[in-house]
User: Fold this.
Amino acid sequence: MSDAAILVRYGEIGLKGGNRPAFERRLAENLRTALKGMHGVSVDRLRGRLLIKGTDEISQLARSASKVFGVTSLSPATHCTSDAKALKKVAAEMVAITLERDFPGDGPVRFRTSVTRADKTFLPGSMEFARDLAGAIIPNQKRLKVDLKNPQLNLEADIRPEGAWIFAGRIPGPGGLPVGSLGRGLCLLSGGIDSPVAAWECMKRGMRVECISFYSHPFVGPQTREKIIRLAEHLSSWQPTTILHIVPFSEVQVAIRDNCPEEYRTVLYRRAMQRIASRVASRRKCKALITGESIGQVASQTLENLAVIEEASSMPVLRPLATSDKVDIIKQAKSIGTLETSNLPAPDCCTVFQPAAPIIHGKLVDALEAEASLDIQALTLEAVRGTERLRIPEDV
Ligand code: ATP
Ligand code: MG
Assistant:
């Protein structure tokens, strides 16, 4: 009898020594959450792998599981007894199904078999049994052409003491570490291309990422708010739930416009953001702020300005894109699914009262002097008090 399931492999977690069981448990839990809407799902630990079972379409389960951080690859697989005859039968069936599903037409398909044998009592040896398997499959499948180096279809048998797994192909996962295994961060999420990618990068390193967005209503319209919510929805496909904090920011901007030198406006907006975000982060037990800043990308992102901006934060500021080129960030935004939304036209609050000539090499003393006439404490508290908190996707 055979049984359909998904074998899940994880890489880096395996390196974590004594922490390994905790990481494995977290990954299993995140997989369960990602597959929550599906039927009859179970996730079990299985000697260095995880095993997903479920009654829904296996390709659908695989698609959702392949977006869980910590997963390096996965394979829909069939379990069967470690008996040569049974293995050959299951392997031949799987190749027939895979050919029909994944290789339409009647052209040649480069093919190989691979065997790993943790159960050394199983004979013959791996190489010999790989040849036996191929010998049982190829005569009935005229399209298959053996190519050991560059196969399009690799039929694998993993023979273990508890039975064997047969699978054809490995679906790549995102790698990284399971979300939640490294604490929480708060990402300053604008409607642009960079910040959602920055949030994604930190999730990939095991952080649970909350988002905070500064919203200057009525100077920017509701389409900006909508866009941010949609970006947070995209991010929620990579972690169970995304908490989004929306901060009313127009009063801060008006105060800066009315009281501070024009050339320092953008830097002062950013300092205000860091201050407010730090407050919200502490309340939410986030240990770091995250931004999409990239060195030299725009005037506010010179080393001098980054230093002046960061000084207003009370916690570490992570900038995963600090050294990335914009073209690469755009490619990545596309692959994680945020680019299209980021490209929707909707102004960011930073364009409100934008100075004609923003300061390029800002100085902290000048920024502090420029802020001296503001009631920073009151503005910060007021913004924090007015902040709206949404759970995405539940609250939208
Ligand atoms: P992005 O694609 O992230 O908007 P950008 O090139 O437009 O990048 P800037 O506008 O200079 O960059 O913003 C730098 C960073 O400041 C953003 O990546 C984001 O982390 C933060 N930021 C800017 N505007 C906002 C906002 N309205 N709300 C929250 N964070 C913001
Ligand atoms: Mg921006």
The mean pLDDT is 93. Residues 188-190, 192-195, 213-214, 273, 291-293, 297-298, 300-301, 348-350 surround adenosine-5'-triphosphate (ligand 1) (CB under 6 Å). The longest strand covers residues 71-80.
